[in-house]
Amino acid sequence: MDASGKRYWSTSVSEAEAADVFIRGYSLGELIGRLPFSAATFLLLRGKLPTPGESRMMDALLCSVLDYALKKPGTVAARYCVSANPSMVAGLATAVLSVGEYTLAPDQAGRLILESFTDANRAGAVDDAAAGLQIEKLRATGRRVPGFGHPVFRFTDPRAQKLKDIARAEGVWGPLCDWYEALHRAFTTRAKKPEIVINEVGMMAAILAQMGFTPEEMTGIAILSSVPGVIAHVSEEIQGKVRIRTVPDEAVEYDHRRRDLKADMAAGDWQADR
Amino acid sequence: MDASGKRYWSTSVSEAEAADVFIRGYSLGELIGRLPFSAATFLLLRGKLPTPGESRMMDALLCSVLDYALKKPGTVAARYCVSANPSMVAGLATAVLSVGEYTLAPDQAGRLILESFTDANRAGAVDDAAAGLQIEKLRATGRRVPGFGHPVFRFTDPRAQKLKDIARAEGVWGPLCDWYEALHRAFTTRAKKPEIVINEVGMMAAILAQMGFTPEEMTGIAILSSVPGVIAHVSEEIQGKVRIRTVPDEAVEYDHRRRDLKADMAAGDWQADR
Amino acid sequence: MDASGKRYWSTSVSEAEAADVFIRGYSLGELIGRLPFSAATFLLLRGKLPTPGESRMMDALLCSVLDYALKKPGTVAARYCVSANPSMVAGLATAVLSVGEYTLAPDQAGRLILESFTDANRAGAVDDAAAGLQIEKLRATGRRVPGFGHPVFRFTDPRAQKLKDIARAEGVWGPLCDWYEALHRAFTTRAKKPEIVINEVGMMAAILAQMGFTPEEMTGIAILSSVPGVIAHVSEEIQGKVRIRTVPDEAVEYDHRRRDLKADMAAGDWQADR
Amino acid sequence: MDASGKRYWSTSVSEAEAADVFIRGYSLGELIGRLPFSAATFLLLRGKLPTPGESRMMDALLCSVLDYALKKPGTVAARYCVSANPSMVAGLATAVLSVGEYTLAPDQAGRLILESFTDANRAGAVDDAAAGLQIEKLRATGRRVPGFGHPVFRFTDPRAQKLKDIARAEGVWGPLCDWYEALHRAFTTRAKKPEIVINEVGMMAAILAQMGFTPEEMTGIAILSSVPGVIAHVSEEIQGKVRIRTVPDEAVEYDHRRRDLKADMAAGDWQADR
Questions:
Q1: How far from chain centre, in Å, is Cα A195?
Q2: CB-based contact C21 D66, cutoff 8 Å
Q3: Gap between the Cα atoms of B213 and B220, Å rounded
Q4: Secondary structure letter of residue B49 according to DSSP
Q5: Which residue of D has its CA nearest to B270?
Q6: Contact C30 A261 (CB under 8 A)
């Protein structure tokens, strides 16, 4: 305890006793076999049981990325890693570390949705006019709008559409989702590009925001959804027995220059020193 | 392609095309909303759809650890990390890295089960006598038997028992599980310690082995099951706004010795150099 | 090669042949025993040999942090890690991951110095008046100025002063360093706080910027300087044989609430599902 | 403090006070500008000042690897990482994680040297006969001898030879180094392969063992020596602005099989469930 009588740590995630662990207050022993993993994930993060619909929504969200072959840098990095250090732990940590600024992470769209919604609410309304103002503000800064656009799909992204249908069916869809669609309408109108879609990462963000998750938690959930694929790749790589993967010489532009160390050190006054 | 015409990489986990991704051959677009995440995990790792029973077993297994308060080093390490670098990615990678030799990981029990079963099979039978031989061999090396024993439970571990009940109910229980129980009987008899239980990590290993997972994959699944708890802790820590956590001075035995650098360098012939 | 004939990778850091490696064009075989490690670090990053003065400056910079007892989150996280997973690799990676936004990293000061200098240069001059404008701009945004201030030192920070003296003596001091001091003068005058020092991290940044390093490289160098201390802590922790460190219960405010899973599931319409 | 009055943590690496840090008892303020980084590394790990010769030896050892182009998995993994997450911290941690079983790490040779030396000493002598016994024991287990052999060099490895020359010149060479050479003689004689060299990693291990480092610390030192090269590669990759590196399709053997989810779920009794 410090001077104020407050303990240094504080947590309400779980409490471990000798014979049981309590997850947000629920006995882990009772929970096993009753809750699907997706529901337990919701419980751990939101501190309350999901409805069955929210639980099925989590399953859909956790399945919406899953794996992306050898086109995801983190997967390739993890396979290079275990070709040298054949450890599941090292491979998984490596894959996690490749998630960031240039990957399609829901946290950026999530932050936009939450901040612009709060902003519009404060100004009085969250309608199409308000969405237009937000988009104009955003376009003035030159920043791109996260969650819009897809290399292949035009007008609609079928996977995003599917997540929306499930959200509606499970009773999860709500004002933050509507707001994101309003932002999308405002954007495509002003940019005169009706073909630009809400992609699946944008839709994930809108639904996760509606379910109460913070942007950092959205990144966590996106990483969680990618873990089984990484386990599969790491396992395949270890069983494949390629040791010490490299980049083949013919794929590299090396700088072939050669220099003379002794001459350059002498010219650089190193003689007096060595 | 190398000289033999073989490509440098090979994978059957997934294939990404412009408009869809194929997970072990199945369209990701179709999969969303149809498969629970636990079933998708099985599919990614085992390369085939689970039965509904196997899927429910995966849910139970993924829920059997979940979180362990501030009594798991990886959780504490992750919270220290994000008190300095408030990043979900860094926090999750940190927690993953604390899984290893001294944590209760199912891979050690899994390796024992698979190797001893193969060994016994080769010798002709996987019965109680064979289990006795395996245990005697193990005890001769002085190694402990992974998955046996619990600080509190004696005779039975209720959580392990629950996993067993579910495995039976879902049609997952099989010869490798029976073999692990035979090893347990042989051990408690020979050690004359009937109170020593099969703990939940041992039971997880037996069931995962029966379901066809490799020991490395078991570690991966154990890490997967702990990710939601770590997300919750990292999120709580970031929201708690404690910056730069340290260890309070009163908890540390510091070495208060002070030394004289100039004097010691002079005594150590550093004068000529500096 | 892609369609344009460009290879996928390109690097000038080093080239490995069967019997030797060439570091920025210099034979590694010749380099060993001739270059101090600090000079080799400069060579790898800047692509050219340092002068002997630059090499000594690197030694001073690399020694200016070194270790910070159990008051650095990364060190504590690394010790928690290896108490569970006794691996030098995992421990070092863990410590690296705790470097970020709230740690005193030179990259933030480095970015400020480089950007404001370019800005002022473009506007015509890098003098005190220009520094005043930059500080006013910065203060208007409410952002703090990185590299200024120390919990103990007032008016001067002896360690920063020492780095400055070495930079002058070794011929490394230059316009970017003068510019940072001009920013400091402008800040202390305008804020009417003459006692606020340039701290050692600010001074490191100014000198590293003058030597030509990018902000990202400054972070890399700061991490490099901390690696020996982390190796020492990890080694001490592994030899100390404390297994599975936790946070003692008396240091934690746990949420003792208990809830009834079956009742809450029933109330939440889970009956129909399970 | 626990019941025994012992504090939970104990360290002698450093102690941080308000105005100074003490590194193994020496004032950090005094140390800057006096000790080369290589000497500070020795001090942190061994708890005492090196001699000037030991310091130069450390410089030579830290320079003996440095970088290995795109033929080191950790470097490639780090570049994939920062093509997605452009962060020096993530890139460095990724590179560290690729050090392990299949990389040429000095810890394996170090462990062999220390254990066999202790063993031989206990048996009475550390001479050629004793070395022969140790090699025979090792060969009986089928294990390879770490630190012997090189893909190009036969009879001598010039880089290993150079490290030996420096160790002799700086007064660092000693009984553990002689012992490793005795093991090498015993091995080449018994294997009838006089051309097999002590490679540079083996020589590093022998010298580091002689200087008093533990095998885990040897791994730490090898990682330290590789950090500047990784910083250079990460910096080059970030500046190169390739975003989201993948593996080109033509380098991958994908499994093109396609399967029908609905049909397979129906066949697998999933209908009743969904």
A1: 25
A2: yes
A3: 10
A4: P
A5: D52
A6: yes
Looking at the complex, report in whole angstroms how far the Cα of residue C69 sits from the nearest Cα belonging to chain B. 9
- Which phi and psi (to 5°) does residue C253 adopt? -90, 100
Rounded CA-CA distance A203/A181 in Å is: 9
Total CB pairs under 8 A between chain A and B:
246
* Global ipTM: 0.95
**Lookup result for tokens 């890295």:** B97
Out of B8, B9, B261, the one facing D26 most closely (by C-beta) is B261
Q: What is the mean pLDDT of each run of 10 residues along chain A (274 residues)?
A: 76 94 96 97 98 97 95 98 97 97 89 96 93 94 89 91 97 98 96 95 97 97 97 98 94 96 94 52
pLDDT recorded at residue A178: 98
Q: What is the pLDDT of residue B1?
A: 44
- Chain A interface test: which of D1, D59, D80, D244 (most A C-beta within 10 Å): D80
Sign of the CA dihedral D94, D100, D104, D107? positive
Is the four-CA dihedral A59, A65, A69, A75 of positive or negative sign? Answer: negative
SS (H, E, C) B20-46: CEEECCEEHHHHCCCCCHHHHHHHHHH
**Sign, CA torsion A148/A154/A156/A158:** negative
Task: Closest CB to B60: pick one of A32, A56, A107.
Answer: A32
If we measure between CA atoms, which residue out of B70, B37, B94, B66 comes closest to residue B236?
B70
CB pairs under 8 A between B and C: 124
What does A207-255 look like in DSSP terms, one character per residue?
HHHHTT--HHHHHHHHHHHHHHHHHHHHHHHHHHT--S----GGGEEE-
Phi, psi at residue D105, to the nearest 5°?
-100, 140
List of chains touching A (3+ CB pairs within 8 A): B, C, D
More confident residue, D67 or C272: D67
Strand partners, B16: B21
Q: Which chains touch B (3 or more CB pairs under 8 A)?
A: A, C, D
Contact A37 B59 (CB under 8 A): yes
CA distance B148 to B205: 11
Which pLDDT score, from 0 to 100, does residue A32 have?
Answer: 96
B27 vs D contacts (CB less than 8 Å): 258, 261
Counts of helices then strands in chain A (DSSP H, E): 12, 5
Residue type, A54: E
Chain-centroid distance of CA A157 in Å reads 19
Q: Are A255 and D232 in contact (CB under 8 A)?
A: no
- Rounded to two decimals, the pTM is 0.96
Chain B residue closest to D25 (CA)?
B258
pLDDT tens digits, one per residue of D150-204: 888 999 999 999 999 999 999 999 999 999 999 999 999 999 999 999 999 999 9
Of the candidates C11, C51, C270, the beta carbon closest to that of A252 is on C11
Helices A106-123 and A128-140 pack at an angle, to 10 degrees, of 120
Smallest Cβ distance to B99: which of C72, C85, C100?
C85
